[in-house]
Amino acid sequence: MQTDITAPENGRIRVTFEFAPGATMMESERNLQAAANQAMAAATGECLSRFDTDGTPIIIAGRNLTSKGRKAKIYQSPGGPVSVERHVYQSSAGGRIFCPMEQAARVVRTATPLFARQVASKYANTDSGTAARDFAEHGREIARTYVREVGSDVALIASEKEEAWEFAVPRAPAGKRVGTVSLGIDGTCMLMCRDEGWREVMVGTIALYDDDGERLHTTYIAAAPEYGKETFLTRMERELAAVRAVYPEVRYAGVADGAACNWPWIERHTTWSILDFWHATEYLHAVSAAMGEGEAARRRWAEQACHRLKHEPGGVGALLDEMVARREEGVRGGTRGEALDKAITYFDNNRDRMDYPTYRAMGLSIGSGVTEAACKCIAKARMCGSGMRWDTKGAAEVLSLRTMVKTEGRWDEFWEKVSRYGFTKITAPKR
After folding, report:
1. How is the chain split into domains, by residue range?
2. H helix runs in 139-250, sequence order
3. Percent of the chain beyond pLDDT 90?
4. Percent of the chain scoring above 70 in pLDDT
5. Residue 1: predicted pLDDT
6. C-alpha distances in Å from residue 63, one per residue of 92, 106, 402
7. Average pLDDT for residues 346-354, to the nearest whole number?
8. What is the phi/psi pair of residue 390, to 5°?
9. pLDDT by residue (tens digit) across 219-256?
10. pLDDT score recorded for residue 333
11. Which CB contacts under 8 angstroms, 24+ apart, belong to 233-241?
């Protein structure tokens, strides 16, 4: 296979290559793919060299640096590895070597920006071994350790710029208006390394709804297990502040399950605090055994109770009174009595968050399904594969990538900012 690169005077680059068709179509395609990758790598090297300096002295952070000459280095691109000779700099006092080309071209570790994006995207969605095998299917061989290293570096860039970069708040599409911002927070468990066992990952959502209750956009937030929720809640508040700046006059509602620890934060940031309707109905189905005799009667009572709770003004109070009366009639102890006690306590503790007819009339969401689904798609689907165990650093890195990938528009915007503003050179050691 042969690749030729020329640079016509129009400033463009012309790449030509040839390949040998095989005895089968599969072999022909593989040969073509290999030749195309080789041509792409060669062209990438030409593009990288255009970000190099001319070798004249430079000043970085007040230090005069001079070129030590052009040194060759292997970089990784979507097409394959490519060797590039570029100027490297150092001060007269010695110290760290600096490569302006890598900074100007936005190289991540040794990966070109597009390849870093591809690697990090795959690492956000699957384990490093599966990602490496997927690259191999496209004629691109890389080590699984390299997948982890580049994914880690991209996550470190995101962490470095977390407070410096503001991401755009989504706007309603033409003909729509944001009427409600709905907040949700929940936790799910993942298995940690060493003796930590199962720990809680916090996941949050900030969802925009139109006046008809249709969800327009969801921003996902997550944090690795920590003692307390400081990192997670700080991220939620930073995202929420940006949304409030754009939508100061809309309704702010919070929807969550019955976990008491979540309500103080939700109620501080919302006007309407709503208990997830489906969690409430689970208690009604559980208590139905104490509310009727026979399977048909119990099922009928549960269906009617759910309907009353959802549609009838004052339904929560009426159901609570009914359950209390049933207990006073002598249904105590045993499975039925315990279910009755739990339901009464649950409804009594949350009755101010269960005015579902009013919420529905206002067009507010009464279900926390968006946040519960986020727990699955952000954390569980990626972090709880067979045999997976995590340290805090690794979990934080993957969750950072995953929330950017899953939040519509965020991944593209992150890489646009990388291209525009750059980042501090990653210096974390290889694992």
Report:
1. 178-375
2. 144-160, 230-246
3. 82
4. 97
5. 66
6. 9, 22, 39
7. 95
8. -130, 145
9. 999 999 998 899 999 999 999 999 999 999 999 999 99
10. 64
11. 233/265, 235/162, 235/204, 236/183, 236/185, 236/204, 236/206, 236/265, 237/269, 238/162, 238/163, 239/206, 240/183, 240/206, 240/269
Residue burial 15-54, b: 16+ Cβ < 10 Å; e: rest: eebebeeeeeeeeeeeebebbbbbbbbbbbbeebeebbbe
> Does the pLDDT at position 77 exceed 90?
yes
Q: Is the pLDDT of residue 170 over 70?
A: yes
Distance between CA atoms of 151 and 44, rounded to whole angstroms?
A: 21
Which of 333, 276, 343 has the alpha carbon at shortest distance from 305? 343
Question: Which residues, in sequence order, are CB contacts of 229 under 8 Å at separation 6+?
Answer: 202, 223, 265
pTM of the entire predicted model: 0.91
Q: Whole-angstrom Cα distance, residue 419 to residue 425?
A: 14
Phi, then psi, of 368 in degrees rounded to 5: -95, 25
Q: Look at residue 430 in the predicted model and tell me its pLDDT.
A: 45
Q: What proportions of the chain, in percent to the nearest 5, are helix, strand and coil?
A: 50, 20, 30
* Residue-wise pLDDT tens digits, 4-28: 888 877 888 999 999 999 999 999 9
At residue 334, what is the residue type? Answer: G
Residue 53 C-beta-side C-alpha neighbours within 13 Å: 20
Residue carrying structure tokens 């005799």: 293
CA dihedral 107, 112, 113, 115 (to 10 degrees): -140
CA–CA dist 236, 115 (Å, integer): 30
Pairing of the two strands 94-98 and 215-223: unpaired
Give the model confidence (pLDDT) of 26-66 as tens digits: 999 999 999 999 999 999 999 999 999 999 999 988 889 99
408 contacts 216 by C-beta, under 8 angstroms: no
Distance CA 95, CA 359 (A): 64
In DSSP terms, 199 is beta-bridged to: 190
Query: Please, is 122 exposed, middle or buried when counting C-beta atoms within 10 Å of its C-beta (0-12, 13-18, 19+)?
Result: buried
215 CB-near residues (< 8 Å, 6+ apart): 207, 208, 209, 365, 370
